[in-house]
Amino acid sequence: MILFGTVVNVLLIVAGAFIGRFLHNIPERMKETVMYGIGFAVAVIGIQMTFESTQILIVIISIVVGAVIGEWMDLDKKVNDLGHWMESKIPASDKGPGIAQGFVTATLIFVVGSMAIIGAIDSGLRNDHDVLVMKGIIDGFTAIILSSTLGIGVAFAAIPVFFYQGIITLFSTQISRFVPDDLLNFFISEMTATGGLMILAIGLNLIGLTKVRVANLIPGILVVGVAVTIVHFF
Prior knowledge:
- It contains 11 helices and no strands.
- The protein is mostly helical and about 230 residues long.
- The mean pLDDT is about 85.
């Protein structure tokens, strides 16, 4: 089953989110401290990812151009509207914290990163699901913590994870025919660094230091692909 790794990843996210809901009665002070801890950890992960870049100018251009595109499209509002729509479909007694915040935060954490792309490519090219299974375990524990503070919206992040990783997996079965290995590795390193800045922004948002509309930075990932291709061939 070519999508085995993605399916396992999705199931572990959902399971972690529901387990986390049973921990929602912990004291508010403890929740606050835990959220700060998560924020700091996420920020450090983002900083580490940023150092993967070999062409930092590509990262800067990608973030800036991506932000312009994202603000023009107002992706943050659209993603939050989707979260609020999901929230409207859930009984009031089950909502807990707002669905939108949990959905948006968890989606960005689970989707942006090298493991998602590398794992999906491994599943498609070599039918090797180890990376995605490992990512699923990490995401599952992260979902427990996020869900205990941000609510059940974290579980809905499994939907974009499934489509994102699933599409990459399916396309990667043919990718070796069109994309040289050195170009693919170049893209992964710059995509990881660009995604790292987004992850850093998420961490700072969780801590409360900033209110960055991180979803509006997502087009930067597409800009990375264009920039890397131009640099590689020209």
